[in-house]
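Notes from the 1:1 (GR / supervisor)

We went over the backlog. Supervisor wanted to see one worked example end to end before approving the batch request, so GR pasted a single chain during the call. The sequence is below; no edits were made to it. Supervisor asked that the structure be written out right there so they could see what the output format looks like.
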Amino acid sequence: MAKATVALLFILTLLPACGSAGQELKAVAIGPAELESFSDQFFPAQMEKLHIPGVSLIVVQDGKVVMAKGYGYANLAMDSPISAETSVMRIGSVSKLFVATAVMQLVEQGKLDLDTDVNRYLTAFQLEDTFPQPVTLAQLLTHTAGFEDPPYATYTDPHQVQPLSEHLAEKMPPRTHPPGKEFIYSNYGYALAALIVEEASGMLFDQYVEEKILKPLGMTHSRYLLALPLPENLATGYFYQDGWQVPQPVDYDEDYPGGSIVSTAEDMSHFMLAHLQDGCYQGGCILQASTVAEMHQRRAKTPYEGQNVALGFVEGLQNGQRLLGHTGAISGFGSSLDLLPAHNLGYFFSFNEECWQTSACEIISAFRTQLLERFFSD
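Structure output shown during the call:
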């Protein structure tokens, strides 16, 4: 079993605020050639500096892919190049956006309510009445339910992982703050929201996401990684240590809903486009337009300057731009997804280097900063 002090933290998602949320912005269209020139300069230099073997990138705007490209290697021993279309990457906490999307699908159907006591939906166990205020789904999705954030545990043997309801009942962290008062990042809270999706839908959560989100969006290379066999074309994750790239074993997580999706950059473009196009991608609709708008609204503040949370998404301002996104860090991998709604643009990239215990995470904020300075500066 492996442990880390914080699981899949998204502190790096957005940098300190500059500008005004209410500022009227003129949409900027990015040309493919200029974008590729920028990307070709940025990624090889950062990969060498931060010891990252490979990066898979995709950028979408106005309903189509502007650029998709792989840099470096999916597997160093085999000299396998990274492909944006076929290389399967572990996306870490970007998975939380799928949890929030699943919850909101059931809110649309009237099966769930964001502001109802979650105990009304739970059948296997109940949250104790630690505080007078009940815990709600809105609080679970904004990390404001008041749970303590315990050490993060994973297993290299998937058979050691308990079923979701058993794990959540047996390993419930203490409720240390009244609901709705404090932002405390919580993988447990997202797993609890996923269990409520199971209760309301009658489907196991990973199967629900497969049927209700991945299939409608044509995300054929994406799934929750819960057991063997491993997906074809899964990139190898690495940990750069003492001058060597050490391959990392695939690990498994009991709080799996918030961190265990594997996907390609191409597949992730479908998800981004759905969130930029009123919930639909090429005729497959996963949300109503009004629900997408509700998901993207600011809900709560975080302790980090310039950051707020929406439902699943993190919101912030940089270079006068409003971004909605999430980052991910899981053994051997890091990833970043950002939407710029004012420009109908989004990008996703993933890399196969340990992100939490090395400096590799720096590529996330560096890309965002340089992209905004290059294309969105006044």
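Supervisor's comment: Residues 2-375 form a domain with the Beta-lactamase fold (CATH 3.40.710.10).
Batch request approved.
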